[in-house]
Structure formats: C-alpha cells, structure tokens
Amino acid sequence: MTGSDGGVQTGRPEPFTIAVPDSDLADLHQRLERTRWPDPATGPAWDQGTDDGFLRSLVARWRQDYDWRAHEAEFNRLPQFRVELGGRRVHYQHVPGVGPNPLPVLLSHGAFSNVHEFHHVVPRLTDPGRYGGDPADAVDVVAWSLPGFGWSDPPRHGTNLAVLADLAHTLMTDVLGYSRFAAAGGSWGGLITSLLGLRFPDSMIGLYLTQANPPSDPRGPGRSEADLSPAERQLVAETAEFVRREGGYQRLLSTRPQSLAFAVADSPAGLAGWFADKLRLWSDCDGELGSGGYSLEDLLTMLSITWFSGTIAAGQRLYWESARHDPGLRGSYIDVPTAVLALPHGMPNERTPAETIRRSFDLRHYVEAPAGGHYPGFDIPEFFAADMLTFFRTLRGLPQIAAST
Fold it and tell me: Is the pTM of this model over 0.90?
C-alpha cells in the first residue's frame, strides 16, 4: 500500500503485547549484580556527572525491588499495535476517547525517553470525565514510539526528523484513517509536531508544544540585540550558559554516538548513570531526582523499556542524523493554530517568550506553567493534560475552562 504523503509503504496494523523473556530479566539482574563501579568523583555531588551514591542506590532498587512484570501488565492493558511503515515496524498505543466526539491527537515523545513519557497523561486525555472533567473534551490518543525507541524498529541510515514527520502523517492518515488530527510533543516530539504543521498544514487541526522549535535564539535576519525584548535577551543569555555548561551530551551524540553506545548497551548501570544525569538536570526535582513528579519508579520503567528493547544506540543516533539534515524549520512560518506551554524548570527554549514564537507560528494559546521541566507528563501530568484539553476545546469551539493546578 502506498502512503498519501509521498509513497511510504504501509502494512496492516497488528495487535502487540509486550512480553520480555524471563531470561532477559535474569540477565539484567545478573549484570546489575556484577556492576564494576568506577572510583567516585571528588568534590561536590553531581558536579562531574551522576553521583556515585545515588546510582548505587538506584541500581540496588532496580535489581531488588523494581517489579517489571507489574508495569508490563499495565502497558498491556492499553490497546497497542505495530505496523510496517516504509519497511520498518512502528509501535504505537491507540486509546479511544470516552466521549461523544473524540478529537484525534498524536503524541510524540522526546529524547532520553520513550512512550512511557505519556503514561500518566493518556487516561486524563481520553477519559476526562473520570477525573472530574467534561466528557465532551475527550480525545483519541495515538502515542507512538519513534523508530529506534522502545518497540519500534531501529531507523535506517538517513532517517531524520523530516522522515519521522512523514511517517507520523502516514500513520495517522493512511493507517488509522484520520483525515485531520492534532499533534502534541516536546523535545524530538516538538520538532516532529512542528514539522507536521509545516509539511502537512491541511491535515493539522492544531499543534501543542512544550518546545517551540524554531527558534531557541530570537535573533534573526535584520534583528539586532537592540530589537530584542527583555525576555528575549534573557533567553539568549540562558541559552549560551546552557550550551557552555550542559551542552556536551549533544556535541558527543551528534558526532560520535556509536562510541558511547558500546558502553551503555552493555551495562545497565552505565545506561542508568547516563540517563540519570540528564533527567536530574531537566526535570523539576530541585536537584534531587525522585523527589518531584518524575519518580524513581518512572525512571526505572523508562530505563527498563530502553534496556529490554535494546534501542539505546538507535535512538540516540537521531542526534547524529539531525546534525546532518536541516528539516527546514528555521525561517519558516507554520500557519496552523498553535499552543505553547512554557516550562519554568526546563531547557531555555522551553521558556521561549510568546513574542518570539509568534514570528514562526500562528500562536493562539500561551501559558506559563506553575511548575514542571522537560517532561511535563511526569512533573505536572494534571496541569499538562488539562491545559492541552483547554486548547483543543478552542479548536472545537467549546467554552473555555481554565486548566487546574
């Protein structure tokens, strides 16, 4: 079957059940037990990366107390499928809305992540009446695993963000039959959502972003420093400081991702240490990972999905591909109704001012969240879901109801 968006071949969706073999569980526990620990870093905790004491405690919990089978069973209660798109199998959850006229919404996850990112959000979107909301707000959720993440096949060479946007469009239109739909995401998911608006505006009802890309730098052709608002000047300064202090991971993954992959694909403790450093910095936890909305249980589930699916190398290769392919977002204007949720504890470009975003998007809805970092689905799931439904309500012409805290 040929897709409507340029010839992507599609197969027939098949129901999918996650079933990690007992031997893989035993292997994980044995590897965790045999972890070869490095010398602890000198100086203050976390200054040179993941803290030794934290990681030892996390690894012990993963080995002794974490119950993968319980989470596996919970995942399998959701309708899951895999379908062949362009020669690769793509995994997705397709959860129907409980309401009179659900709006179809595609959720795309981000980096250092997988579809578990939306675990706490999906029921609030599909069944708002269960949480005290209006059933008329219900949406049909399609939450997909990007190629190279979770139970989607590894991407081929040349699979960049534009290719992923084309696959997402094919999934929603050709496979699932939605002629028009909304899309939401941040990080990689935000870029894919933006590209859907750029490449397929006639198919898009609206876009909901927690990272409005572009731009992270409000300076552009014909604009000097004097043209920037105070908020834009602050964004420029914060971005430069973030790149200086925390940008090493991106430089490494965009140049030599495979060199790191051998270590983190072989050692679950190494994988945990690599993830923990980033998730501590990017989540709203006040420096204590597990103390905020992003719980240690969620972290271990994210790690387990990545470990059991064996996708760490394939997923992080997207940085390398993105460094070599310009998807065409910069300098463009996306003429699709757009909402942005600004996150106070996220990356600098998750606090991009509304005046900057308006130069690239048809911005209809801009809200500064009271809390939350790079993963609002963990940090602030109630607010995140409620604000998303508030924006989607405007696309259907329903009355406004403010997002609750």
Answer: yes
